[in-house]
Amino acid sequence: AEYMGLSLRCASALRPRMASEQERGQVQGSESDGTSEDDKGNDGSSSDSESSESEPETKETNENEPLEEPEEQELQLYCSKSVEQPEVLQNGGESEVIQQCCKHCIIQKKQHEQVTPRRFLKGQFCLKLDGEGTFECTETGLIFEVTRSVTIEYSVLSWTKYAAYVKEPWIVVGPIFDIKCTSSALTSIQFPHTLCLNDHLSEKAFKVFHFKKNGPEFEGSIDHSTTHVKWHVSSLSPVGPVIERYDPVYYHGVVILYKVINSHPSLKFRVYIATNNNSFIKDISKTVRRSLNKFIKIEKPPCHKLLQNGKKYRLTSDPEADITPEEIQFGDDSTLAEKPFFEVYLEQPMELMLSLVDLESEEVVWKAKLRECKHILSRIQCMNLEIIFY
User: Fold this and answer.
1) How many CB atoms lie within 10 A of CB 220?
2) Per-residue pLDDT tens for 225-251?
3) Cβ–Cβ contacts within 10 Å for residue 31, how many?
4) Which of 9, 102, 364, 373 has a CA that sits 20 to 30 A from residue 304's CA?
């Protein structure tokens, strides 16, 4: 097996650690370890949180809601502010929403109280708020406005379950969540979105996809900013931000890199380009985890260049490697079951520079440099990844 370690220019050295079979089989959700299991069964079901606290009331089962097939537990990657630490997983890992800084967007300073939820199995989050106020979840970016003390449970869902309902002219612009609350004290929710609005902030009309018992509705938002879409809570069930398609659509994007772990001396990677959408990123994680191959996943910052809907991008390497396909047309593929990716193959391990290039302008939007280490740890070949942004 091979191992890849990640080092950013300004980050300290990293220490790899192996996920044992016991860790994979007995993942415990907590506030500190960041581990979770993906949601199983019907998303309308109640949480199986291992908590002594009272749980929110369970909503009735929605017969129209698509079912999500059960999944195995996975050890989730945890990314700190200063060091991005990789983990060797049986079938990849799941990432958090990646923080970005866009020069085109005016990002206001955090004006809401930051709160960190408790984390449980099945990817469930739980917030127990003590009184009236507006609170922002540090894990998901959701912003809750409440009128009194309340308990809120929520989880990230997959848009693929609702693909039949999100058709033209609608496009997905952020994660979809299943949210439960103990009372009517929750008055509004702000959903993070992935669009770069640039100078057109006031021109856009966001909607909220709301999957109710009798089917989907597209409800109006009451406000939006460069980062969030605000919605008045009418009832609670799967909800997420959408917008009518316009041109051009610019996204804040991420590049996600996986390396195949096997006994061969060759190097093989999967490179995904995606919107910075937690539902999208979660789907990629599931796809990789279900693969017959073993992967290591490297967390890293997003592209500093915007990705445009409908544009084609090419991945290049130096030295030249076998890369398929030659190009990918970028778009928000949140509703697609299989996300497109580049496969990179190099017969012999060596220093490698990967570049993502806008096919039309030939502008480099992202670079990653991989260097082979001379030392061997536990018979695992180590390589460093240096991220270079433009």
Assistant:
1) 10
2) 989 999 999 899 899 999 998 888 899
3) 10
4) 373
Given this model, what pLDDT does residue 195 score? 93
Fold of the 250-370 domain: Immunoglobulin-like (2.60.40)
Q: How many CA atoms lie within 13 A of 347 on its CB side?
A: 1
Task: Provide the token pair at 83.
Answer: 């060091």
Q: Where are the domains of the chain?
A: 107-244, 250-370
pLDDT at position 4 over 50: no
Name the CATH topology of 107-244.
Answer: Chondroitinase Ac; Chain A, domain 3 (2.60.220)
CA 73/CA 293 separation, integer angstroms: 17
